[in-house]
Amino acid sequence: MMLRTIRWCRHPGVMGSSRRSRYLARFAWIIGALGAAYAVAAYVLVPALWSRYEHRPGLAQRPMVTATAQGIPGDPLNVGLVGSREEVVRAMAKSGWHAADPITLRTSLDIGVSVILSRPYPEAPVSSLYYEGRRQDLAFEKPVGHSPAARHHVRFWRVAAREAEGRDVWLGAASFDRGVGVSHDTGQITHHIDPDLDAERAHFVRSLDEARALARTFLLPGAGPTSNGRNGEGDPYFTDGDVVVGVIDPQLGDAGPEPHAGRKPP
Q1: Taking the model in full, what pTM does it have?
Q2: List of E strands, the chain
């Protein structure tokens, strides 16, 4: 009976030691898991976010939607370039984009005739949009087919002088004109855009990438995700709201004389 009691009294010590071992093992596992989570967050996730979104204090708090002359919200900003005016013009020309002619009586008649007769007019004018009260500084287009009724086009505004890497920053609104029709809001004759602005943004960046005009690209937060937006002509659009900015390759400036930058107004 005494022997049995002594043996029973030894069991708690053995059980306590085993329990402590399990606690220590569990504690070590938790510490290891926390360490692994920290390593993934600090060395993978956060750097990935910083590479996806550039932090540009000079561009913070800016509106990311254009407006018509009447103040109606227009196309959202979805693209950008970093480089001088000459570099922007050269990069766009090398990528197959044409500088748009200014809107005059002559160019307005020319584009009307070109649409009706399906004649090429690769420098056809584009309507004006405004950003922070200023009309676009530059406008480019890339024709699709023979008529200027369908075309890729983009407007640019210089928003910061020597802000990024000591170079100018340009923000732009790129969209695809799918045809000519009547404005949903004013009844005027106008181009209607394709609603998928992200597809046009991808086309814009791809055209410059294929021409090897860009050194790299980065993202900026734009107008934000929009599933049922309307531009100044009442056309619907949708977008994830990001702005893709391309940094023009500095060596592009050695590619020859500056290309034609559009017909000058009389």
Answers
A1: 0.72
A2: 65-67, 73-76, 79-82, 98-99, 130-131, 134-135, 138-143, 151-164, 167-182, 189-193, 214-221, 226-230, 236-239, 242-248
d(CA 126, CA 138): 10
- Torsion, Cα 201 80 122 230, to 10 degrees, reads 60
Q: What's the chain's Rg over C-alpha atoms? A: 29
Condensed to tens digits (0 to 9), the pLDDT of residues 74-132 reads: 999 999 999 999 999 999 999 999 999 998 888 888 877 777 777 878 888 888 999 99
Q: Which amino acid is at 122?
A: P
DSSP 145: S
Please enumerate in sequence order all residues whose Cβ is within 8 A of that of 245, keeping only pairs 6 or more positions apart, or say none.
54, 79, 80, 81, 82, 169, 217, 218, 219, 220
Q: How many angstroms separate the CA atoms of 13 and 29, rounded?
A: 24
Mark out the alpha helices in 133-223 (DSSP H runs). Answer: 197-210
Task: Please state, as a whole number, how many other Cβ atoms lie within 10 Å of the Cβ of residue 214.
Answer: 21
Closest CA to 99 of 131, 128, 142: 142
Residue 243's DSSP bridge partners are 220
Q: Residue 152 carries which side chain, given as an amino acid letter?
A: H
Model pLDDT for residues 160-213, shown as the tens digit of each residue: 877 767 899 999 999 999 876 545 454 556 668 999 999 999 999 999 999 999
Cα(96)–Cα(53) distance, integer angstroms: 28
CA gap 240, 144 in Å, rounded = 25
